[in-house]
Design a protein that fits this description.
10 helices, DNA polymerase, domain 1, 222 residues, alpha/beta, Rossmann fold
C-alpha cells in the first residue's frame, strides 16, 4: 500500500519555465549579460537557482560573486512575477485530489528556494493538505542528496523500514538520483523539463506520460 507520495515541483507539479526564464533574463539583462530563450533556460533548471545562474552566465563570468549578484536581482522579480505564466500540468489537481481521497500523504521536495516553493504550493493547491512542503534552505544539501526526503519522512511519521510504501515523482535525472539515494520507488514523468532518455538512464521503477498512469500505479499497490 502506498502511504506517501513525494513530488518535485518545477516540471512535475507546475509548468514554471516561462516565469523562471523571465526572471533570469531580467537579472542577466540588468547587468549587461546575454539572455537566453526559455527553451535553453529549461535545460538549466533542476539543481537550485544558484546552479541555474552559474549555467546562464557567460563563460568567464561564472564566479560566486556574479551568481549572488544575479540571485539578488532574480528573487524580488520572481517573487512578484512568478505566477504570471505558471500553471499546473494537466491532470495534476485531479491526481492530488485522488491521493487525498485515499488518505495518502502528499509532500513536496524541491530545489527551488523555500519562499517561492511555499508561495506556489499555497497559491495553486490551497485545497490540498501537504504533510511537508520543502524547498532549498541554507545549510541543507540540495537534491540529489536524500536529506530532504529524510526530513519529509520525519514530518510524515513514516519509518525508514517502510520505504516500500513511498513514491517519489519527478521529471529529471536529479529527481531519479534523489529517489535512489533515499531508497524509495521512483516515477519519472515525461511532461517536464527533461527528456525521457535522461530519466531512463537511472532506471526508475516507472516512466509515465500521464497522471492517469500514476493513479493506476497507486491503485495497483492496494
Amino acid at each position: 500500500m502506498i502511504k506517501l507520495v513525494i513530488f518535485d515541483l518545477d516540471g512535475t507539479l507546475l509548468y514554471t519555465v516561462e516565469d523562471i526564464a523571465a526572471a533570469t533574463n531580467h537579472a542577466l539583462k540588468l547587468y549587461g549579460y546575454p539572455t537566453h530563450p526559455s527553451s535553453v533556460i529549461a535545460t538549466f533548471i533542476g539543481n537550485g537557482i544558484n546552479k541555474l545562474f552559474e549555467r546562464a552566465l557567460p563563460h568567464g563570468e561564472k564566479s560566486e560573486e556574479n551568481v549572488l549578484k544575479i540571485r539578488k536581482a532574480f528573487i524580488p522579480y520572481y517573487n512578484e512575477h512568478g505566477r504570471d505564466y505558471t500553471r499546473p500540468f494537466p491532470g495534476i489537481k485531479e491526481l492530488l485530489q485522488f491521493l487525498s481521497e485515499r488518505n495518502i500523504k502528499i509532500a513536496v521536495a524541491s530545489n527551488k528556494y523555500q519562499q517561492a516553493t511555499t508561495t506556489l504550493i499555497e497559491h495553486y493547491f490551497p485545497e490540498i493538505e501537504f504533510v511537508a512542503v520543502l524547498g532549498q534552505r541554507d545549510g541543507i544539501a540540495t537534491k540529489p542528496d536524500a536529506t530532504i526526503v529524510e526530513q519529509i519522512l520525519l514530518a510524515a511519521k513514516i519509518s525508514a523500514e517502510d520505504r516500500d510504501s513511498i513514491l517519489y515523482i519527478g521529471d529529471s535525472g536529479v529527481d531519479m538520483q534523489t529517489a535512489i539515494n533515499a531508497k524509495v520507488k521512483a516515477i519519472g514523468v515525461t511532461w517536464g523539463c527533461r527528456p525521457r532518455s535522461e530519466l531512463a538512464k537511472f532506471s526508475p521503477k516507472w516512466i509515465v506520460d500521464t497522471t492517469k498512469e500514476i493513479e493506476e500505479i497507486v491503485e495497483s499497490h492496494k
